[in-house]
Input
Amino acid sequence: IVEGEVSVSGVGDRTGGEMVVIGQTIDIGPKARLSADGSEGGSIIIGSVEDTHAVTIGGKVRANGSSGNGGAVMVVGDSTSVLSVGSTGRIEATGAVNGGLVTMQGGSVHAALGSVIDAGGGVNGGTVAIIGQDPNGVVNMDGRVGATGGTGIGGVVNVTGAGDVNIGSGAVMDVEGATGGLVSIDGAGTTMLEGTVGAVGNA
Output
């Protein structure tokens, strides 16, 4: 359980560092702040594809680039794991120039109403990849997922599931930019879309 602040952020014009959180069951509590911010975002890895069975994120996890590109946040588990972002959870890999990369890959993936996953960029949007690997599992997205671009191209949001994929009524998936980006939703089982998807070019 992580409840405090853990930082490998770069000071001044330094790049954010690297952080790895490993365990079979990982709980990032609502008061937790994990940061790898810097002029260029660093990287944060939570979980392991071999040993992690469950990850819950209720706090903030950030790898933002204040003057350059966003970093990378990877939340991973084994092929039957359950990965969840709670209503107070926030994952960011934003950049002043290009957005970074956020990956959630496990058996089932859930993002509650109120949660935020953001890989936006001031110029080009980044990439958010949500990957459910369990054919008996489910991908439930009901929060906000963004990979917006500013003066350039919107990013990519890719949601895939080996089982069912549900994009709930509270979900907002936004890859807008001067040129619109791409949202891809693909479930091997039933795919349900009730939320809002924006991929409009604003130029």
About this structure: DSSP finds no helices and 22 strands in the chain.
